[in-house]
TrEMBL record:
Family recorded in the similarity comment: Belongs to the SusD family.
Sorted UniProt keywords: Cell outer membrane, Membrane, Signal
Annotated compartments: Cell outer membrane
Domain spans labelled RagB/SusD: 260-489
Keyword Signal: yes
Name used for this protein in its record: RagB/SusD family nutrient uptake outer membrane protein
Domain SusD-like N-terminal stretches: 42-235
Protein origin, superkingdom: Bacteria
DNA-binding in keyword set: no
Pfam family, one: SusD-like_3
Length: 490
């Protein structure tokens, strides 16, 4: 009897070693009893650490390295990340808007599997942690992190595999909503039902994580109260729930600071940066070679992809950045100052925002949430509400990046547009652009910029906002195995 993709491939068990390299792997469902895993909170902490590790673990091909790879795919579907050549082929299909519409694409399968794997593991923790031996305080923190993971993973999935959140869409098919660990196939819940559960999970996580101190900066892979509130702010933003978006974004950044201009130029590769709220910390001996985020997005790692296809910024967007803004230095319109690896090509508008440890070491910490994003969410939400202090919130961030920035006098939609431009510049390469285009119902427009015509055919230059292509297709393997599943419009 066939098992279902989201369950059979993600029905994972937690395996640990005596050293500090806890990890989780896909195993048969009868490999080990979940009762044995959760006998103690110490083991349960190992399970949580395994989930953190899975955020940058290689799943199959080298373009399938957890969240970093999803971030690359999300920006490849936008207009601001530019492929400077066809390179050695990685992510080209995404850039051409064909991967997510090909039911047999390996990357499509990976994204679907990856998030349901996280959900399956979160469910095992949630269902078993209460009976583990150990401090109640630890149980609360462990469950809170698992609930936050479950909320976040479902939110990622519903944004990709369903239509955008809109009152007219709430009754339409969302994604399979998994709140119990099971290998029995399930039908898709509605978009409204998925968002209801996402909000419940993240609010429960916020309650449980209140008071949790995760310790030093190297533990930013753990989800604390600030991160959980940041996730709530993201969710509210995608729903157009401006009041909650502003509220939780403001609360999420409390007692946290923006980085200095000097730190902005250090390579976006370290969780010790004070602005980072959530990210994967990677040890040098956990080399990720050619599946690292930095093997594709850095300026300096000596991979074929970086040497031949350094990633660049949309030239039109670059032109909107003032010369006095530190972010202008993250790209070079001539390419001359880019610290390319040996024999690397120096391409116009190439980035030096992301730097690997060295040309021979692809190690680097991957950023998932920063304080700047919270300022941008709060400013956008307040601007959409017509609140007078929206420009003040934007000013704090923009003035930090550009000493010459003058507080905006714009209001209404004009201010919203200014904030969205700031968002595009600030979050470039960090996996937000596809989600932003989709949530704002904005068409894709790559025209008049430096996109490679060999890669951006006419069909990949523009996409109307109402195109069915904004919705990822369900992988064919899932369709074949799960008889309760329905496909998106082909």
């Amino acid at each position: 009897m066939k098992k279902f993709l989201y369950s059979s491939l993600v029905a994972t068990m937690f395996l640990f070693s005596a050293c500090e390299k806890e990890y989780l792997e896909v195993q048969p469902t009868d490999a080990v009893s979940s009762d044995a895993i959760f006998t103690t909170t110490a083991n349960a902490w190992g399970a949580i650490n395994g989930m953190h590790r899975s955020m940058y673990f290689q799943y199959s091909n080298q373009d399938q390295a957890g969240q970093g790879s999803v971030m690359i795919n999300a920006d490849m579907l936008g207009e601001d990340l530019v492929m400077t050549s066809q390179g050695n082929g990685w992510f080209n299909a995404t850039y051409q808007w064909s991967m997510h519409r090909n039911v047999n694409a390996g990357s499509l399968y990976f994204i679907y599997r990856y998030y349901y794997k996280l959900i399956a593991n979160a469910n095992m923790i949630i269902e078993n942690i209460d009976k583990a031996e150990g401090p109640e305080a630890d149980k609360k923190i462990i469950k809170g992190q698992a609930l936050a993971y479950r909320a976040w993973a479902h939110h990622q999935l519903v944004q990709l595999f369903a239509e955008r959140y809109d009152l007219a869409n709430l009754g339409k098919p969302g994604v399979v909503l998994m709140t119990k660990f099971t290998t029995v196939g399930q039908p898709r819940a509605t978009i409204g039902e998925v968002y209801n559960q996402i909000n419940k999970d993240v609010e429960d996580a916020i309650a449980l994580l209140d008071g949790y101190n995760r310790g030093d900066a190297l533990k930013k892979s753990h989800i604390n109260l600030n991160v959980a509130k940041g996730l709530k702010a993201r969710i509210a933003l995608s729903m157009g729930d401006w009041a909650n978006a502003a509220k939780y974004a403001s609360e999420a950044r409390q007692n946290l600071s923006l980085m200095s201009n000097a730190q902005y130029k250090e390579g976006f590769n370290s969780v010790t940066n004070p602005e980072w709220m959530w990210g994967s910390y990677q040890l040098d001996d956990q080399q990720t070679y050619f599946y690292s985020f930095f093997a594709y997005m850095s300026a300096n790692f000596n991979s074929t992809n970086i040497r031949t296809n350094p990633k660049a910024i949309n030239s039109k967007l670059y032109g909107l950045i003032p010369a006095t803004d530190v972010r202008k230095q993250m790209w070079d319109p001539t390419g001359a100052s880019i610290p390319v690896p040996p024999n690397g090509a120096k391409k116009p508008y190439a980035n030096k925002k992301f730097l690997a440890k060295s040309s021979s070491l692809s190690v680097g910490d991957v950023p998932y949430m920063r304080v700047a994003e919270m300022y941008l969410i709060e400013a956008e939400a307040k601007a959409r509400l017509g609140q007078a202090d929206a420009a003040d919130v934007l000013f704090t961030l923009a003035k930090n990046r550009d000493a010459a920035y003058v507080k905006s006098l714009k209001t209404g939609q004009e201010l919203v547009e200014e904030i969205l431009i700031q968002r595009r510049i600030e979050l470039w390469g960090e996996g937000f652009r596809f989600f932003d285009l989709k949530r704002t119902n904005t068409a894709l427009d790559r025209t008049g910029a430096n996109h490679d015509p060999a890669l951006t055919t006419t069909s990949a230059l523009t996409k109307p906002a109402d195109s069915k292509e904004w919705v990822f297709l369900i992988p064919q393997a899932e369709m074949n195995a799960n008889k309760a599943m329905t496909q998106n419009e082909l």
